[in-house]
Design brief:
With 216 residues, the chain is α/β, with parallel strands linked by helices. It has helices at 11-22, 34-40, 55-60, 77-89, 102-110, 119-132, 162-165, 167-171, 206-212, and strands spanning 3-7, 26-31, 46-49, 68-71, 94-98, 115-117, 136-141, 146-152, 173-180, 183-186, 199-205. It has a 6-stranded parallel β-sheet with strand order 3-2-1-4-5-6, sandwiched between helices. A 5-stranded antiparallel β-sheet has the order 7-8-11-9-10. It starts with a strand and ends with a helix.
């Protein structure tokens, strides 16, 4: 179990806090609006009505003892930056911030945010990528750089073994499963032959897995 602080209970902050709590983690939420705190109090470990811009408040709450803080205050760049700076100065191990714009993003990075997320921008990119290629059936993000994609097996792969295709060397991805006629073969060996109509599940860097759909 990890410990998290979520500052700001808009749609993004509330969703993050509730999901982290449901996954079994300890979650402290902080918001200046008492109504927001009352609505979420039963769904998280601790819910406090307070002003996170005040270093004394954060110190009293013992924020330095938490593993990670998520700053979901995005509407006001100044407040977001001040809260982020306070959390870093209090010694929070990792501070992740929500940005509303690219300028906001740069400000948060400059003052020491460990990671900045831009939900609307990132979701827009993923939607566009999905719409642009009907061959990508599914995508799972493992980290900022790596992911798993499931794509229709390129015609040039069909009827050939994985050893013959040498996908790892040519495309820098690993084939971790093949779906064929409703059956899933997990971790297929080098002698496995890709059949017509199969789909393959590939693991690799996003830049490499994204190139696979160009082969279909």
């Amino acid at each position: 179990m990890k410990t998290f602080i979520v500052v700001g209970l808009g749609r993004f902050g509330t969703a993050v806090a509730v999901e982290l709590s449901s996954l079994g983690h300890e979650v402290l939420v902080i918001d200046s609006c008492e109504d927001n705190i009352q609505k979420i109090a039963d769904h998280v470990t601790h819910a406090v009505t307070a002003d996170a811009r005040d270093p004394a408040v954060l110190r009293a709450l013992g924020v330095r003892n938490y593993d990670c803080a998520i700053v979901a205050v995005g509407a006001d760049v100044g407040n977001s930056a001040l809260i982020t700076l306070n959390l870093k100065e209090q010694g929070v191990k990792q501070v992740i911030c929500k940005a509303q714009s690219h300028v906001h993003w740069k400000v948060l990075e400059k003052i020491g945010a460990d990671r900045v997320v831009f939900p609307e921008h990132e979701m827009g990119l993923k939607l566009a990528q999905g719409l642009s290629s009907s061959s990508i059936l599914n995508f799972i993000e493992l980290s900022d750089d790596y992911g798993i994609v499931e794509i229709t097996a390129p015609k040039g792969w069909q009827g050939r073994s994985l050893k013959d295709l040498d996908v790892r060397a040519k495309y820098q991805v690993n084939i971790i499963a093949v779906r064929e006629q409703g059956e899933i073969n997990v971790s297929p060996g080098g002698d496995y032959v890709i059949g017509a109509g199969s789909t393959v599940v590939a693991l690799g860097r996003d830049e490499d897995t994204n190139r696979l759909h160009d082969l279909t």
